[in-house]
Structures are given as structure tokens and as C-alpha cells.
Amino acid sequence: MAKKRTVAEARDELYDALRREKFDAAHDRYDELETLEPEEPRWPHRRGDLYRRLGHTDAACTFYERAVDRYAALGFIARAAALARLVVSIDPARESILERLDTSEAQRQSRTALGLSRPPPPKKARVLRRVETEDIDVDEVRFDDDDGDDAIVLELSDLEVVEGAEAALADERDALDAGEAPRRRRSEDLAKLPAMPFFAELPKPALGMLLADATLVEAAAGERWIAAGDAADALFVIVEGDAEVHVAGRPRPLALGEGDIVGESCLLDDVVRRADVNARSAMTALRIPKASVDAVVDAYPDVRHRVQELLTRRLLANLLHTSPLFAAFDPGSRKELARRFEVRAADAGTVLVEAGKRSDAVYTLMLGSLNRGGSAMRPGDTFGQRSIIDHSPAEHTVVASTEALLLRLPRAKFSELAALYPPVIAALSEL
User: Fold this and answer.
1) What is the DSSP letter of 296?
2) How far apart are CA 67 and CA 84, in angstroms?
3) Residue 74's closest CA among 207, 194, 196?
């Protein structure tokens, strides 16, 4: 009886055939590997790559479609979506693959990882609304507080999902890698990362809208694929490889990998990129134009809230390391401080503070542009603390020049925090 061959043996022969450009032998080995690992998506994926390289696009798309179904069945929804988009770009007649993309396994894994049995409720960054009633001191600018159950809550544990990628990922590529890089992260590891719940919880028509105009972006190791100052005109989902985000004022870059989303600021209008993003290894990302994101959030309001959550967590992760307001505290105090802030949106033209009047809260700018007394404010800048500490009026008027996202610490919550952590008052006074 012939000895049953192992995956390693078949794979080594595949590598050898590819190196020597013995493509008939390579196809035989792909057939063997698919028999040995019938649920593994890499083999039809890489076989499609080979057919595409040889100019056989119809055969390439057939194998790509098989890989799409297998990636989705295992929960690798970002890879499945990216490969489906590639199929349609090669052969528009296969557009139905976008509609049949199965998100059920990704949805199951994501909800299990988050401890949920149903879709996570969307969280909102409510728009600031001026409160004008007779019982409010005319010398104070006051906005409504946000204590709703659907408000974004700033828990440090929530941020660990974003920042957990900071540890360098072990590179598990085979020594004889010939384009057959194995999955570098398990789907269970990706379940809490932004791309999984984002794609998994999208209504199928919304997912189809996002992917319809999406494109794949490839970058070589060390290449810069997003530059600070560029227009925020797209959302990116990392499909394979690693990247690092260089934020001004941050001592070390933020490491990102498969399953992470970059460019959430495109949800806002008239903003630019605040950081450089470089490929740390050869990488592939799915680029979704802002116009597609805008169309989906207009049609599906919950999508806006989910993207806004992603945006808020990324921005807060940066602020916790760069803003003087947060950097002055130990991790435990930071957590208490962050939890008491509200995440609020401000429309362009909103007067947040008026010269000669007291502020009702401490504010920190996360994204957008504010004008204070004729000078532009930068993300991370804090204002309103003087009124909160000694009840004195503001010296300058602060107006939102563009749509903006802010952290807001209302007076009542500041008083609670100051009672527990007296150093907060000293830190705000220094600012």
C-alpha cells in the first residue's frame, strides 16, 4: 500500500515546481493540496494568482471564487471581500459574487468574541446642541449632556482592541516561501479587530455598495501609502501584511495588521490625514472611496455610528499617549479620566466657547478644525478648563471651522473626578 503523502511533502514539491516554472506539475500539486486540505482557501487563491500571471483570467476567477467562499466560511471576511472585489475588477460579469458574500461565520465569531448573542447596538457621537433656558446663567455657554445608553463609552478595555496590535506580530512565513504565505493570524484573533465586526454586521446591500467601487492597494515593505496632509478621501482595510502609523508627537509608531481599519476620518467632511502610514512588510489593503462610505452611511445610519466608533477609538488611543491632559496620569487614572468624557460631534460654525462667558465643560479636540481667537487649534488641544476650575470667563471665542469630534468633560463629572483624583485640577491648571 502506497504511503499517504503529507501536506508538507506536497507543498515542498509545489514550491520546487514554481521555482523551476514547471506549471503543469504545480497545478498537479495544487490539486493534491486541495484534496489534502479541502477547506483551506490559500490553495485556490494562489492557484488563481498563477493562472492570472499566465494570462488565463477566466480560470483565475473560477479559483478565486472558490477561495472567496472558503475564506468566508472560515470567518476571514476582509480577505473574502478583497478577493471578491478583485474577481469583479477582472470580470465584471461575475458581479453576483459581491451579493452572495457570506458573512454569517464572521458574524458568529465576532459576536462570540464580544460576548454578544445579537448585533452590537450602535453607539453614537451626538451632535452638541446649545441649551437656552431661563434658568441658565446668561454668562455661561451650555450644551446638553449625553447620558444616553447609545452613547460611545470610553473604556480603556475597548481601546485595547485597537492598541493590541502594537506588539510586533511573529512572522511565521515558511523558509521556502514561494508566494504561499500561510495565514498569519487566526480568524479568532481577528474577531475583535475593527474589520471583522464592521463587515460582519453590515447589511448585505450595504456591503455590496461599499465593495462596488473599492480597489486593492499593494505596497512594498517600507513604502509610504498614506501621507499626513493628504485629503481623507478613502477608508482602508488591511487584508494582508503589516503597517505602522506615525503620529506627530507620539514616541513610537502604532503597529497595524490584518483586520485593522485605517482612515476612519473620511467619515467627516473637509479633513486631511493626520499621520503617515508606511508598509512594514509587503501588504495589501482594500481601499473604499469616501463617496461610497458617504452613500452607505446616508442609506444606513447605523453604519455611520459604527465607523464613528472606530474613528473615536483610534483617535483616543492616540490622545492617551500624546495629549498633555492624559499623558500626565498613570494608566489607572487615565482610565477614570477617559470614562468620564463624552464623545461629541460639533457642526461647522458651532460656537463652543464665547469670550466673556464661562464654559460648561472641559473640551479636547480629537478631529477637525477649531478657531480660538483667530488662531487654529490642533487635535489634542484642550480648552474650557479655566472656567471649570475657577469659574472665570473665557478670554477667547472658540468656533468649529469644520465638522469636528471632541471629548467633553461636563462640569458635574469633572467635580466627581476631582474628588477622586485631586491631581486632575493641577494638570488642568498647567494646561
Assistant:
1) H
2) 9
3) 196
Nine cell digits for residue 425: 485640577
Residues 61-99 have pLDDT tens digits of: 999 999 999 999 999 999 999 999 999 999 999 999 988
Q: Residue 379 phi/psi, 5° resolution?
A: -55, 135
Helix (H, G, I), strand (E, B) or coil at 218: strand
Q: How far apart are CA 70 and CA 183, in angstroms?
A: 13
Q: Bridge partners of 288?
A: 235
Q: Does pTM surpass 0.85?
A: no
What the block records as the C-alpha cell of 194 is 475593527
Give yes or no for a contact between 236 and 263, defined as CB atoms under 8 angstroms apart.
Answer: yes
What dihedral angle (degrees, nearest 10) is formed by the CA atoms of 330, 377, 263, 193?
20
DSSP code of 288? Answer: E
Distance CA 151, CA 236 (A): 25
Element (H, E) at 236: strand 234-240
Number of C-beta neighbours around residue 29 at 10 A: 22
The three cell numbers of residue 428 are 488642568
- Per DSSP, 229 falls in state T
How many helices (H) and strands (E) the chain has is answered by 18, 19
Tens of pLDDT, residue by residue over 264-302, are: 777 666 677 878 899 999 999 999 998 898 888 888 877
φ and ψ of 288, to 5 deg: -110, 115
Is the Cβ–Cβ distance between 72 and 103 less than 8 Å? yes
DSSP state of 17: H
